[in-house]
Amino acid sequence: MSLAVTLRAPVRRAVFSTSVRGVEFRPKAYRRFTTEGPPPAPKSNTALYASIAAFTAAAAGYYLYNSNSDTSREATTAVKSAVQSGKAATKFTPTKEDYQKVYNRIAELLDEAGDYDDGSFAPVVLRLAWHASGTYDKDTGTGGSNFATMRFEPESLHGANAGLHVARGVMEKIKQEYPWISYGDLWTLGGVAAVQEMAGPKIPWRPGRIDGFASNATPDGRLPDASQGSQHVRDIFYRMGFNDQEIVALIGAHALGRCHSDRSGYEGPWTFSPTTFTNDFYKLLFDEKWVWKKWNGPKQLQDKNTGSLMMLPTDYVLTQDKSFKKYAKAYADDQNLFFKDFAAAFAKLLELGVPPQQFVVAEPWTLNTLEEQKA
User: Could you tell me which of 58, 97, 239 has the C-alpha nearest to residue 178?
Assistant: First the structure.
């Protein structure tokens, strides 16, 4: 069901009409890049920093794996201290401008998807950022974006993370160009770029995450199970520290992308514009008549009119649960409200599990899109 697209331009903030059925819209223009070309080879200080960081991380890893689990926190603290020492030794301290360059490179790569899905890596990169952060448990303080543990098995093999090797592969290209950035910062920054470059709201973001070890990986079952109902949704999101309004706003990320039967088991896009961030997800929930799809896959809904759109059981509960429905209807009626609430909730999600003292700045930054940098 993928739409082959070889060229695309950044979609502007025009809301695609949901009254036209059966067509997935994508603009047919060329993107003109005005950012720098590929960065030059790292200077010696950056290479030295990377070497120091790798050595200290390996040393800390050896210590961790040869100690009992109670020393895990000490080991990860040692990694942070060693990396910071490496930066100090080489007098290399990334600035906001450095992170903007990383953002720009991510934004460029999002458009280099070729025939993949609907011609953009943005939806799968957004999913990577979401799933890497959504494992947080506020009661135990474990999980979240801090250690980027989806790099390790078995977390990388969890059913909810099926297909995310694609996004990790895209991000690995960036990591090779900018070895100084942590995976946690890279993946979450990728989520920011995915939303903003697909015409979504500005997402406040700041760096400071560190890379952990396989022992920091979280158990399976912490991410939403799409086959469940409202109680399951609350259990998952309340565990992270979100309320009903934030839950409904975060589920709005389904404005982008599609499901794949060879990954989640489900199939199809949520909207007619799966590479544009809008409030159409909520509009369609209320404006379309949804029926159960007759097929051999898991239970999912499809729109009765065209049969080309899908909704998951956990999506449909937004129209059935009284509290959820209130917020979903408000977002269907007001895209600006949705953008505001999504930006706040998503920024909160991306920081889950990161000790406040690790962040390099007190207040998050707002990074510019490629289009904004052309002005």
Answer: 97
Give the list of residues 6+ apart from residue 363 with CB closer than 8 angstroms, or none.
206
What is the Cα Rg of the chain in Å?
21
* Distance linking the first and last C-alpha atoms of the chain: 36
In this structure, what DSSP letter does residue 253 have?
Answer: G
Average pLDDT of adjacent 10-residue blocks, the chain of 375 residues? 40 39 37 37 44 45 42 48 50 92 98 94 98 98 98 97 97 98 98 98 98 97 97 98 98 96 95 97 98 97 97 98 98 98 98 97 97 94
Residues 85, 153, single domain; the answer is no
| Residue in 131, 187, 205, 254 annotated catalytic | 131
State the amino acid at position 368 in one-letter form: N
180, 187, 270, 290: which is the annotated catalytic residue?
Answer: 270
The 8-class DSSP code of residue 248 comes to H
The b/e string for 309-326 (b: 16+ C-beta within 10 A; e otherwise) is bbbbbbbbbbbebeebbe
Given 90, 111, 144, which residue is the final one in a domain?
90
For residues 144 and 194, membership in a common domain is answered with yes
Full residue range of the structural domain in which residue 54 is found: 44-90
Reduced to 3 states (helix: H, G, I; strand: E, B; else coil), residue 175 is helix
Identify whether residues 145 and 180 lie together within a single domain: yes
Instruction: Provide the edge-to-edge strand list for the sheet that holds 310-311.
Output: 290-292, 301-303, 310-311
Is residue 165 part of the annotated active site? The answer reads no
187 carries an active-site annotation: no
Nearest in space to 159 (alpha carbons), one of 54, 298, 281 = 298
CA distance 255 to 269: 9
CA distance 44 to 55: 16
Of 90, 116, 144, the position where a domain reaches its end is 90
Same domain, 100 and 85: no
3-state secondary structure of 200: coil
